[in-house]
Specification:
There is one protein chain. Helix 1 runs antiparallel to helix 5 and helix 5 packs parallel to helix 9. The strands form three sheets. This protein has a nine-stranded mixed β-sheet, with helices on both faces. The protein folds into two domains: about 20-175 and about 235-360, 2-Layer Sandwich (BirA Bifunctional Protein, domain 2); about 375-465, Rossmann fold (3-Layer(aba) Sandwich). Strand 13, helix 12 and strand 14 form a beta-alpha-beta unit. The relative contact order is 0.11. Helix content is about 35%, strand content about 20%. It is of the alpha/beta class. It binds histidyl-adenosine monophosphate. The site of histidyl-adenosine monophosphate (HAM) has 26 residues, from strand 6, strand 11, strand 12 and helix 11. Histidyl-adenosine monophosphate (HAM) binds near residues 120, 138, 325, 327 and 331.
Amino acid sequence: MARPKDKPKMIQRPRGTHDVLPPEQPIWEAVRKTIRELSRFYGFERIETPHFEMTDLFTTGVGEATDIVTKQMYSFKTRGGDQLTLRPEGTAPVARAFIEHGMMNWPQPIKVFYDGSFFRHENPQRGRYREFHQWGLEVLGDDGAVADAEVIHVFTLFLREWGFKDFIVEVNSIGCPACRAPFRAQLTQYYRSKVRGLCKDCKERFKENPLRLLDCTEEKCMQVKKGAPQLLDKLCEACRSHFKLLLEFLEELQIPYALNPHLVRGLDYYTRTVFEAYVDEPIKPSAEPISPEAVVPEEKSADEEAPAPVEAPKLEDKSPRRLAVFGGGRYDNLVELVGGKSTPACGGALGLERFIALVREAGRAPAEEKPNVFLVQLGELARKKSFRIMEELRAAGITMAESLGRDSIRSQLKVGDRVGALYALIIGQKEALDEMVILREMSSGIQETIPRSRLVDTLKRKLKT
Ligand code: HAM
């Protein structure tokens, strides 16, 4: 049926975005509180960078051939002719800020955290948005495996703090340019005869960045991947001992981890450590063991308390349902790549939408805070006096709600009931004139009339009990 001419079209939010409505705010606030407290305790200071950057930062930093750069960036040209991009991730912007503000001359390492919106033009689906929020941790100026371990540790503490125990951190080392070059050649050799059977993207990856062939989740590519050589077996001595030390830290910290030799991640800046965490049922050991022996510390015996590394799940188990809740790694070359002095660094980011969905599914979302008092007013004089009373309550730290626009006492009390207030504070024309107030306990309906001057003290006493 044709729409009447003058009816304006309803405008909806853009695909892949979401509103955070008032009832959802308590969980976002509680999560952000944990983020702030944990980050600060572990020495990470807040950093805020712009929501858009010069496009070159991401093409250079994240990598020309990555999915993010080729398919997912929201880029635009300004009137002044600048080529800008809405930030798809936070690491390259932090590296840019590090250089731009001479942070290499500050006491090292620089440890920062951020919590904000990021933008990727992805196919919207459960847990995948076009505007999403990340909590990121970055450590710049530290090449030790202890920094990688600390980042993973803080994210896992966060999961534990919210009651999640069934998570697994998949880890891998993708080495440094020195050990990666011969591996790349081997990988190319392995894939050369198989490239025709790969997906369209992998055909491109074969030409542009063969390492990313290991990242594909297309069924036919996963079959080919099973026989592919593993970089973990071919790390140079320095990368091997860095990774070994990281695994020792993870054991010491009792972090459940799994070696996944095919984990490469979708961003080009990583060197050595890469990790990704999943909150799930515990992963059953694979029937097809992979070979972590090369890097697992031999001196730990199986009966020690630390959890033994769980083998990575069978590749077939990697259903699209499994979404990483956090991921990251080391990026020793990024700062130099985007114009600074060579600076070792590592970090990671946790997706807040995915995390909050998990909290909800687990039934751990905090309830909305209920106001102590609901203010009910009757008549113009009472309404006028309401603001002053509200200020007195605020100054005393007593939470309250009101419905000043309503006239009837019944409808106001109904709202008070709905918001779960403990007490109703009723002021009619008479009370307003006499400087009195009626205090009514919502659960019992028992009420008393008290002088206004004693209101705050009376409420404070009642609320304590
Ligand atoms: P990432 O793996 O692309 O890494 O994103 C980190 C986390 O953000 C993911 O594990 C996921 O929870 C969440 N996430 C990513 N894309 C989406 C999306 N479209 N919708 C909802 N959530 C999403 C990075 O961004 C790196 N900058 C992390 C890092 C920091 N590496 C080193 N330092």
